[in-house]
Amino acid sequence: MGLTGPGPADRGRTPLEERLREVMAAPLARIVAPDRRVRPPGTVVDRWKVPEEDRSALAEWGLPTDLVMRPEFQHATEPLLVPNVAGEHERRLIAGDQRLYHLGWWGAHDRTPKMGAVAGDGRVLAVRDAPVTAADVHPDLRRVYADLYQPAVAFLNSSIARLVELAWRWRSAVAILRELHLQEPHYSRPEEEHDAHLTRVEAGERIVLARAAEIDPAIDPDDPRALWVALITDPGC
């Protein structure tokens, strides 16, 4: 049996792929939800030692509150986060005497890294208390994950302003990607329908990844270890 075409309910709707392109390119004012944003106190962020563009982005747009990402801005004017420069990977990103402004958490579980903006240049890094290694998994799984190393410091964005823009665009895009995932054919359907659905999901993810790399050229859309790439391509998004 061949692939099924759109049903009557689908006719007249904007294709999901086109909707993805729209939210990844629309002015932020059109996609920011005022009732779903949190912003740091203006009297505090104005004194942070980061570029003016970054302070302005936080003051105007803030970060969304209804993603896995959890914004929670420090109220101190001096940077509070101390990086654990545990090895070569971490040293490539930050020096041991540098400090970061606490912006919140990258995810929701108990091993979630904190999001921090480096004082001075405003780069956004994911900061853990210590690297995650095989010693942190169940003893029965340590041989399987013998090479596991999630660094204590990882790259997120080259500026706070780019984090802000990507967070809001991702908030809109992830809802559309979920719609794509929900269109998965019934398990009894022919294999070619499942293959076509997977191809469509991957194409949607590529739309988001390509735009993410345009917004922040420091993001490598082909690096599965990059935190934004892992988030966008997560099948459970």
> What is the tally of beta strands?
9
Low-confidence stretches: 1-12
Shape: globular
Strand order of the largest sheet: 3-4-5-6-9
Taking all Cα atoms into account, the compactness measure Rg is 20 Å
Verbal overview:
The protein has 237 residues and is α+β, with helices and mostly antiparallel strands. It has one domain (16-232). The chain has 8 helices and 9 strands. The two termini are 30 Å apart. Mean pLDDT is 89; it is low at 1-12.
Write the layout of secondary structure elements.
Layout lengths: L15 H10 L2 H4 L5 E2 L3 H4 L6 H9 L2 E2 L5 E2 L16 H4 L8 E6 L8 E5 L5 E4 L4 E2 L15 E2 L2 E5 L2 H23 L8 H25 L11 H6 L5
Antiparallel strand pairs: 1-2, 3-4, 4-5, 5-6, 6-9, 7-8
Helix pairs in contact: 1-6, 1-7, 4-6, 6-7
Describe, in short, the structure shown:
With 237 residues, the protein is α+β, with helices and mostly antiparallel strands. It has helices spanning 16-25, 28-31, 42-45, 52-60, 88-91, 160-182, 191-215, 227-232, and strands spanning 37-38, 63-64, 70-71, 100-105, 114-118, 124-127, 132-133, 149-150, 153-157.
Q: Which key terms come to mind for this protein?
A:
single chain, 237 residues, alpha+beta, 5-stranded antiparallel sheet, 9 strands, globular, SUKH-4
